[in-house]
């Protein structure tokens, strides 16, 4: 009856049966209490488990090792390691010696929290108590060292195992294979798998999945597919995580045809595909501009009754927006609302950005207000998108009001926030206000950076204030990290609010001409074309500004040396 009540979660009834047992002339024993204790711990009702242990002792029943181990296990599973330690101390006080299981549970709990040194001390304590560590003890500590401590100490424990005549089992080997893969040492990982065959512990499903993941992360797709075939011949199946890793790698390398074939073949072979499997390929299609294929895959996903989460909806909405399919993106946004999903900050920011890009700033603010109503806090990305939208739509005063409100409320701002406002002020010819914000940026340790200099220089050139532009360039010479910053910008893609630059033939022609003149040392001619471009409203590439500014800095340095 007690077991039946526990299985149905009727714990109060189970405890009441302890009292009823006396009425029938029988008395609860340690098995009775252990049954209820075990279920309490499984359900995480540890305070009640502790109370039941106290009740057990008050009734004159001595808890046995199994009783204590139930509690140690329960406490360790929820991270109550101090309480687990107290139980072990209580065991010793009651002359119930902890066994290998007791120690291993607490060692596992300590390693899980990265408290490796405490776990090693516990191993020493168990040896002092004549309880010999087993392969589980060593595996737990080795894995703990690899995850949180020193790999050198992990390998030292492997040698210690060998010295004590312990055999490295499948778990030990898989821990080693995983570490080699994590470090990108795929030759060593493969060699360890080969040694497993020879040692009588052949590679298992975990080994193969780990190796495939490792090869993918190392960019060795050929080896990953070879391992996948070998795994199949050995009668094992990839798990979904491994399959998704291969899909991600294929999409990252723009091998979308192969990714699609893998997805279809995996489905036909009975592999369990999930939302991540489809979402990965969806993102790949959108990155490559293949909206039709992405939408086709979306339909296929829905037919298979794989329910998309907000993450997958964000992928398709962002993808459609980037390809200019705004109406379809809005349609998906409305669809997710109908399906009872709650949009997150990414969802709102994506749609707000689209509205701003299309000049529908009022709609963008309506959505921003809904976001606030839903208790979602607009972040710095939201602010930057709205500021950019207002500035682009000629509503600089409203942008300044939002900017000042945002700062007065103590909300986070970044370089993009300042650069957006500085650019807006420069376009309106309000250079003094722009310079004020540059000073403010410096005070907040947020720059200025390449974009700031570009905006100011462009505005000065457009206003014909060439002497000031020259003075500004001299100040830039004093900025120690400018050269390094410029080189970094050349080497990496600078992330903005999902804004992509369109191909503009005028922009490209002017940019190429300016760069070519700078390479020839003809900086005055380059500057003349730069001024003309600004007057025509031609947007130049980021690299053009960098090359031009570096060139002018070089010229100024040469002139300074000549004067000296």
TrEMBL record:
Record InterPro entries: PPR_rpt (IPR002885), TPR-like_helical_dom_sf (IPR011990)
Keywords for the protein's UniProt record, in alphabetical order: Repeat
GO molecular function, one term: mRNA binding
Any Pfam family hit: PPR_2
Domain of life: Eukaryota
Placement of PPR repeats on the sequence: 1-28, 29-63, 64-98, 99-133, 134-168, 169-203, 204-238, 239-273, 274-308, 309-343, 344-378, 379-413, 414-448, 449-479
NCBIfam families on file: PPR
PANTHER family named among the record's database cross-references: ATPASE EXPRESSION PROTEIN 3, OS08G0290000 PROTEIN
Name the UniProt record assigns to this protein: Pentatricopeptide repeat-containing protein
Native source organism of the sequence: Gossypium anomalum
């Amino acid at each position: 009856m007690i077991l039946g009540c526990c299985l149905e979660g009727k714990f109060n009834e189970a405890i009441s049966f302890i009292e009823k047992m006396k009425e029938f002339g029988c008395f609860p024993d340690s098995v009775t209490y252990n049954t209820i204790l075990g279920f309490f711990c499984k359900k995480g009702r540890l305070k009640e488990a502790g109370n039941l242990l106290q009740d057990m002792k008050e009734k004159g029943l001595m808890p046995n090792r199994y009783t204590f181990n139930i509690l140690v296990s329960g406490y360790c599973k929820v991270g109550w390691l101090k309480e687990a330690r107290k139980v072990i101390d209580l065991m010793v006080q009651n002359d119930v010696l902890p066994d290998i299981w007791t120690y291993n549970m607490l060692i596992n709990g300590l390693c899980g929290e990265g408290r490796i040194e405490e776990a090693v001390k516990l191993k020493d304590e168990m040896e002092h108590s004549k309880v010999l560590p087993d392969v589980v003890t060593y595996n737990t500590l080795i894995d703990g060292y690899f995850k949180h401590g020193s790999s050198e100490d992990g390998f030292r424990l492997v040698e210690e195992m060998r010295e004590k005549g312990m055999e490295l089992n499948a778990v030990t080997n898989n821990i080693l294979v995983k570490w080699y893969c994590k470090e990108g040492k795929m030759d060593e990982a493969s060699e360890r798998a080969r040694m497993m065959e020879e040692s009588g512990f052949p590679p298992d499903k975990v080994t193969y999945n780990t190796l495939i993941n490792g090869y993918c992360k190392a960019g060795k797709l050929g080896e990953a597919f070879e391992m996948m075939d070998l795994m199949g011949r050995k009668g094992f199946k990839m798990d979904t995580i491994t399959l998704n890793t291969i899909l991600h790698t294929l999409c990252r390398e723009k091998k979308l045809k192969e990714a699609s074939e893998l997805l279809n073949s995996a489905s036909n072979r009975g592999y369990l595909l999930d939302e991540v499997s489809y979402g990965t390929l969806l993102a790949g299609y959108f990155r490559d501009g293949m909206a039709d294929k992405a939408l086709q895959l979306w339909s296929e996903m829905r037919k298979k009754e794989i329910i998309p989460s907000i993450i997958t909806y964000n992928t398709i909405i962002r993808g459609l927006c980037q390809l200019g399919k705004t109406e379809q993106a809005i349609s998906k946004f409305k669809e997710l609302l109908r399906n009872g999903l709650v949009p997150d900050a990414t969802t709102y920011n994506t749609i707000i950005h689209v509205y701003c890009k299309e000049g529908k700033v009022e709609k963008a603010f309506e959505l921003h207000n809904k976001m606030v109503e839903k208790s979602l806090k607009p972040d710095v990305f939201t602010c930057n998108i709205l500021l950019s939208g207002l500035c682009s739509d000629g509503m600089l005063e409203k942008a300044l009001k939002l900017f000042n409100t945002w700062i007065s409320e103590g909300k986070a701002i970044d370089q993009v926030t300042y650069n957006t406002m500085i650019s807006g002020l420069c376009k309106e010819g309000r250079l003094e206000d722009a310079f004020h914000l540059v000073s403010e940026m410096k005070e907040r340790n947020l720059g200025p950076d390449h974009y700031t200099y570009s905006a100011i220089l462009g505005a000065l050139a457009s206003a014909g204030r060439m002497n000031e532009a020259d003075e500004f360039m001299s100040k830039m010479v004093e900025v120690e990290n400018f050269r390094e910053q410029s080189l970094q910008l050349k080497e990496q893609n600078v992330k903005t609010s999902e804004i992509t630059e369109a191909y503009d033939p005028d922009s490209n022609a002017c940019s190429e001409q300016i760069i070519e003149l700078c390479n020839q040392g003809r900086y005055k001619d380059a500057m003349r074309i730069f001024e003309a471009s600004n007057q025509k409203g031609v947007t130049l590439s980021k690299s053009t500004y960098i090359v031009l500014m570096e060139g002018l800095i070089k010229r100024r340095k040469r002139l300074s040396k000549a004067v000296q």
